[in-house]
Amino acid sequence: MKSKMMVMLAVAALMSVTAAFGDDGVDASFNPYRQGFPAFPGLAPGLQISKANVDQFVDALDPGMVNVVRNGWYEIKVGPTTQFAVNEKYVAATRKYAASVKLGPNVGDLEGYVAGRPFPQEPDLKDPRAGEKLAWNYKHGASGEDNASVNPFYWRYRDMRTGKVERTVKFSFHFLRFKHRLTEPAPEVPGNASNMLMAIYARVYDPQDIKGIQLLIQRYEDDHKLDDSYMFLPMTRRVRRLAPAQTTDAFLGSDAMIEDFKGYNAAISDMKWTYKGMRNVLLPMYNHNEMKFETDLPAESDGYKFVGLTGMAGCFPDVTWQLRKTYVLEAVPVRTDHPISKRIFYLDAQTMMIVRGLAYDRRGELWKNGTLGMSHPDAHLPANKGTGTPVDDVFSAVDMQAMHCTTGQFKTQGDATTNKPSMFQVQYMRNES
User: Fold this and answer.
1) Which candidate among 16, 162, 196, 329 keeps its CA 20 to 30 Å from the CA of 136?
2) Does the predicted TM-score (pTM) go above 0.90?
3) Whole-angstrom distance, CA of residue 28 vs CA of residue 122
């Protein structure tokens, strides 16, 4: 009788958890604007926020952007808030599997995850692990395309004092998710004997002095297992393995670290996570085809045009920003030798993408000011239309202390044909040399 009662209680508990973020909870997670879009006094599409009026809108901006605008480095153009509806397969997987997902005993432990958003319930400030749950939502988020190619990808290094573009680097970047896939091959890439979660491959095409450099990052399902990271250097014609600490070095002399890629590119267990609350803030999310385009990059053969840059030394995206429900997340490194003391991430609540990120130096002072501009997929390349995956479109990494920035302009598309699993192996780097 006692055993039967325990089973009944377990079933009731599971039903209560499911109800807590069942259809209504999942709908609210993926459509936070069911009751209407957020508003802020005096804020409307077409408004330009400059140093003359920024004090009126401090509560609609993150502190990094307040700093930038007050300095007169950039003016924010306000656009209308729009829906960024997430891939229907991803939403369906969330409905099917979320009730079985839970955190394990240690940071970086995730149990019962199959696919979709791990934790669709609204984060609670009283929950000491709410920040960790949001970090998992990002890691397994709608931003984690099963396949994506960024080619070409132009990085430009800029001196903010002189306005000079010091260097232009042309890359291609490729991303492949090996597990928890929703597109074929699903749910996993065959032959994944090492249990990889995902991998990144990048290659430099210009300028000549670094042409042929390749980067490979292999990330495992086990969050506690260190990434395997490799770099091919054409001058030595050898592949060398990168030490874990090198992911926080300046990448090829830029203002970005490998750890900065796509907002945050490291393990959940590398940080202590704290949820700092929800805010309605302006984020650079927009329709690519409606923005002002770059005039000094080579035209693509298919007619694709890159989003432009503006502001001081051209260090900021020339796009519109919209008021969106946003989760504020603090990440404090576990490593005592890490070059930063903390990161503050601004996650778009609908997509769980990191759109803004601030990094503070070891003295606790603001150091890096990061922006990742996102286009709606239906207003981008035809190949992205209908995918339900927001498109990485432009980035800006500003070193506030050195008065220097690195900008990136992308041509991103989901690409299952180019991203063969063999591309994400060390041997591929040697073959491509």
Assistant:
1) 16
2) yes
3) 8
